[in-house]
Design goal:
alpha+beta; binds iron/sulfur cluster; single chain; 4 strands
Length: 58
């Protein structure tokens, strides 16, 4: 299982960056990008996104 960010929904708000305890997310070119080498897939960033852009990729 992974997490995916829907680029069409991502507004680059950075809420997920603030929410991630592992500091696994960066805003690159106005869109959130997850570093999967750091992410531990806890899902904390999912409800942090005001646009519902992050979800588990089953
Ligand atoms: S799932 Fe957890 S560790 Fe991974 S990017 Fe989201 S908040 Fe960070």
């Amino acid at each position: 299982m992974k997490l995916k960010i829907d680029e069409a929904k991502c507004s680059g708000s950075g809420r997920c960056v603030e929410a991630c305890p592992e500091k696994a997310i960066k805003i690159v070119g106005g869109k959130a990008v997850i570093d999967y080498d750091i992410c531990d897939f806890d899902g904390i960033c999912i409800p942090a996104c005001p646009n519902g852009a992050i979800d588990f990729d089953e």
